[in-house]
Amino acid sequence: MNLNKYNHIYQVLSSDIAEGTYKKGDVLPSEHTLVNMFDVSRETVRKALNLLQENGYIQKMKGKGSVVIYNPSMDFTVSHLTSFKEIQQLKTKQYSTNVVELTQYAAEEFPRVMEALKLQPEEKVWRLIRQRRFEDRTHIVDIDYFIVEMMPGLNEKIAADSIYEYIEKRMGLTISYSHKEITFEPMNEQDLELFGNVIPPYTATVRSIVHLNDARPFQFNVSKHLANEFKFVDFSRRFHGE
Question: Per residue, what are the HEC states of 148-183?
Answer without folding.
Answer: CCCCCCCCHHHHHCCHHHHHHHHCCCCEEEEEEEEE
